[in-house]
Input
Amino acid sequence: MATQQQEKQDQPPGWTVRLDHKFESKPRKYVPGFWTTLKLLPVAFRLTMACRGVRQQGREPPIDVWNEPLGQQIRGVPLGGIGAGTIGRGWQGDFNRWQTHPGSYTHAQVAADQFILTVRDPADNNAVLLHRVLHPGRIGHHLSAWEWLDSTGSSHATYRALYPQAWTEYNFPDLSLKLVCHQVSPVIPHDYVRSSFPVAAFNWTVENKSSRPLQVTITFSFQNGCGGEADAAGGHSNESFVFDDMLLGTVKGVALHHKLEMNPYILSIASHTYGGSSDPNISVLGRYATSGDGEALWSSLRETGELPDSDDPSPSNPKETIGAAVAASLTVQPQQTSEATFSLAWDQPRVTFLGREQVFTRRYTLFMPADCNPAEDLSRITLSGWREWVRDINTWQAPVLGDPRLPAWFKSALFNELYVLIDSGTVWLRQDDQEPGSPPPVPLKYLSKHGMFAYLEGHEYRLFNTLDVHFYASFALAQLWPELQMALIENFALTIDKQDDEAYL
Output
């Protein structure tokens, strides 16, 4: 017993699961009994009429009990800072939940959003030793040319979550090869600048334990969009970019322009060489059809271990979805370790809520140059800053993780449950670009300084900053970002002398 307890204490902190794990219990919707249903009929009628009335005004109802999403056991640590939208990444490596429109989520596993591993033997005429998508099992029916991680590969892979970081370890015993993907977002307590950026970094460590050199290529593929119907609407485009940086070396990436009538945005993926070195070698594929078989991307990696460095900025056609990819190719010597880092960023500077009554500007734009290239600048911020994020996050978490009085499950829950402050439809908006009105009834020291901060009561109840629900989360916000807590309270104070006469029920 003592040995088992010691092994648990020696395990790294966080929630850990193997990629081939199967949950015993499955989520299901609650179905009330007959007598309960009878009692709820009047309430159900009122809610139905309220939803109909809101939709007749061109809006979506904040509470829709008839169309609640069923919980899925695929979630992992979400990506992004505070208030600029989030992208959910699952514990098996997929990207599966998107919050680009304030207060609205898209639940979709996008098959093209993956990391791909290609291993070749330079001593044997670059023979392909392994070529797989690093996700256990196929997603969807497109990209039929791609080969996915089988049960053997997923049984040797482990995911660990400790928000805002996550680690996925892949072991390939036949090749004596080990890879670790370290995912991190800039969620840093008491930091009101870096924490606002809509970015995430993926640092890959490749360890060659064999006696021969290996050419290892890691490819980051991403679709233009979030898996919704708009992805195939046509008019979207991709644009490759490259620039040199004194610290990063050469940075290559692709900006994916997603054209929407309301709240358009740009996604960007990128990687870089190290300090002027040619290793890793970075190559890009500016566009491919993710609604096709994916053969062009797949065969290029298999035959050369690289992408063709192509660019095609032409807009997509209706019913066609497009994506792009960035590859980092490493030559890893025997008993050596190499690294490659990728960035993911999304730029949606101006947003309107579903009522479309007013346009707001996101907070992070305050810290971007007026004439910036958002895809390049956010990629630079991510690739040059992620190590400092890790240092500051580890410093914040160390006192709790190092406290022997606290059980491991408590340490894991304490940090992993913080995702709710960032991934609950959270918005952080600038105050300085709003139209001036009558003088406020109270001083607005923190609201003027930090802007407006709001998050949803829940994914199913899309009500921002309900005071009773915020009460339960306010301790974390007040302790970690106290000035955001004060700005939120000042925003509440502005409503004291206001009245909403609209009848909802």
Observations:
- The CA atoms of residues 113 and 222 lie 4 Å apart.
- Residues 1-7 have pLDDT under 50 and may be disordered.
